[in-house]
Amino acid sequence: MRYILLFALALAAPATQATQSTTEKPLEIYFIDVEGGQATLFVTPAGRSMLIDTGFPGYQDRDINRILATMKQAGVSRLDDLLVTHFHLDHVGNAAALAAKVPVGTFVDHGDPVERDSKELLGPYDTARTSGKHLQAKPGDKVPIDGMEVTVVSAGGQHLARALPDAGAPNSLCAAFKPKETDPSENAQSVGVVIAFGKFRMIDLGDLTWNKEQELVCPNNLIGSVDLYLTTHHGVAQSNAPVIVHALKPRVAIMNNGAKKGGSPEAWQVVHDSPGLEDLWQLHYAMAGGKDHNTAEQFIANPDETTANRINVTARRDGSFTVTNERNGLTKVYKARSQ
Ligand SMILES: [Zn+2]
User: Fold this and answer.
1) Ligand 1 (single-atom ion) residues, CB below 5 Å
2) pLDDT surpasses 50 at 333
3) Is 226 a member of any domain?
């Protein structure tokens, strides 16, 4: 009996060391340039992976190849989770093709599409998702992945019923909110998530639109604050209402715009003016923005459509994080917030 115990301890020792070393390692996040769509890869210290959205189909497999190249560089050969925020081409575009090339653990989406075109889009994806588990996301759900916490805050037009921990304070910006017309499109159905890694928090709301954004923060801010804000809907003015952007108080924003898609001057200004924002990084120079509504050149990953540079983020459990522009190697460290 004693020998068995010693043997068990000997086996357990290296595992304990491995666990200790992985807690020191960061979360790696890759914002892939898909020319104004979305594709964001997360890799945990233990090598678990989640991809949010899959870029556009076509263009000689441009976006799927960029995703596969990023996975290779990140050292992942499977996706533990493939989250499709909603059924528009620039998000679900390569989901089925990707699932044919790499194993997928869980497919996460909001359920049935609400647009007829989207139902047609669902076709190949519907078949693909039978190859893994399927989570029809509801607000409050956790996306199953070890090493980080991914909480669904919006899905299928619904939003969180209760505030996230340490959130829920009244939002004084609600009084000035002006609703827009109800959005009947897939955008309003977007699966939105808050991703927490230790004290680091970021938000990705897909293409969620104006009135639905407001529901998350009025009358009480159900989300709280975030360190990193991925601009909603590629930085267009139908989204990025000040009532949510300014209540989230991001330290850093990353705009997943293309040269000719997203990055509208109005939304850019809202993000730029957010209280406490230290920097705005952009995947692309936005042609619509001109010189007054683009961030400084060194924070832009792609000046035009001839390159496909990423913006990479390394997040640590103490809440500090580093952002890197792959084009020029510019790296900036954001220290943990003081408590
Ligand atoms: Zn989109």
Assistant:
1) 90, 207
2) yes
3) yes
What's the full length of the chain, in residues? Answer: 339
pLDDT at 20 over 60: no
Sheet holding 331-334, edge to edge: 133-136, 104-109, 79-83, 49-52, 40-43, 27-31, 311-315, 321-325, 331-334
What CATH number is given to the structural domain containing 140? Answer: 3.60.15.10
Rounded Cα–Cα distance for residues 269 and 107 (Å): 35
Q: How far, in Å, is the centroid of ligand 1 from the Cα of 91?
A: 6
- Tell whether 21 is covered by a domain: no
pLDDT in tens, 123-174: 889 999 988 899 999 999 999 999 999 999 999 999 999 999 999 999 999 9
- Alpha carbons 44 and 29: distance in angstroms, whole number: 9
CB 183 within 8 A of CB 211: yes
Residue 59 located in a structural domain:
yes
Residue 1 has pLDDT above 60, yes or no: no
* CA 13 to ligand 1 center in whole angstroms: 47
Q: Quick one: average pLDDT of 197-201?
A: 98
